[in-house]
């Protein structure tokens, strides 16, 4: 009977592994087919991502509509979240959930009360550490939106930094071939995803609506605090005012950014060395010493020439 139970359990887990394997294969094949259909039918995958993002923002808006009731209170209780700071975070993160400053301020208060309710409920039920949950759940609810939006803004600026050199090289090559800057930007951004495409698509739309080019450049600076990106836009503004060729500006900026990236990698490697030394000193070395000492003690007590054999 026991053998039958063991065989049944092994068979169950074998079936689960086979299911996961075939599911993974199915998902990979589905992804390849969708990419092929997109290429054949000239459907832009980025537009699909934007539609999904907008749909997710609409769902989130329905879920957080009650946050508007707390917006006035949230703007008064604005610890670590002044209105101008929130506006800057939303702008630099790309505002993927289409939040307004008022709704964001209300959302943190709503989550504060939800955390307080959960803490009281846990305390009434009698869960372990319920007092700590009651104390920290409201604080976590208050600071969670702030931490998430700041993390999203930092992540977005990092993506811009990574994609920018390749983007600049491509635009520089197009401009050197005789294509105008506006046309080059429209064509090149079709081959990029993420924040680079979002920012320059918005830039092109502003130019189409009649916004002066320098003002559109200034808006790019306001929406992004990445040093490399800001250096590029300032160089473009200066080149536009002084008449410097755009292709030369893009090429120089791309080379400078790659050099900066190389220096940052070297800096990170240099910072990693003391950390490795610290781990080695306080973890590996003591464990090694204890192992050697333990072997010596065991040899003294249980070896051929042990202390017990002498007596």
From TrEMBL:
Keywords: Cell membrane, Membrane, Transmembrane, Transmembrane helix
One Pfam family here: T2SSF
All copies of domain Type II secretion system protein GspF, residue ranges: 167-292
Signal peptide: none
Keyword Transmembrane annotated: yes
Gene Ontology annotations for the cellular component aspect, listed alphabetically: plasma membrane
Organism from which the protein derives: Ornithinibacillus bavariensis
Keyword Cytoplasm: no
Official protein name in the record: Type II secretion system protein GspF domain-containing protein
Domain of life: Bacteria
Membrane topology: Multi-pass membrane protein
Cellular localization per UniProt: Cell membrane
Bilayer-crossing regions: 6-24, 107-126, 132-149, 276-302
